[in-house]
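Lab manual, section 2.4: Encoding a predicted structure.

Procedure: take the sequence of the chain (62 residues), apply the prediction step described in section 2.3, and record the output as structure tokens. A sample record is shown.
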Amino acid sequence: MNTDQVKGALKEAAGKAQQKAGELIDSPGQQAKGLAKQVEGAAQKKVGDVKEAVDDARKAAK
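Recorded output:
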């Protein structure tokens, strides 16, 4: 696991919590921010997945 995967997962979890908090306090703004953070975290996680795949391929080629 690399840092992008970890940071992405943490951002995604924080976004879910923020979205739920927005639902609880009936704040569409907080819900939207939480959803945006989830998307950002998922994208960062995917970048980390690609980096790891490239590293694995590079190691296998040696």
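Check your result against the sample. The CA atoms of residues 23 and 52 lie 35 Å apart.
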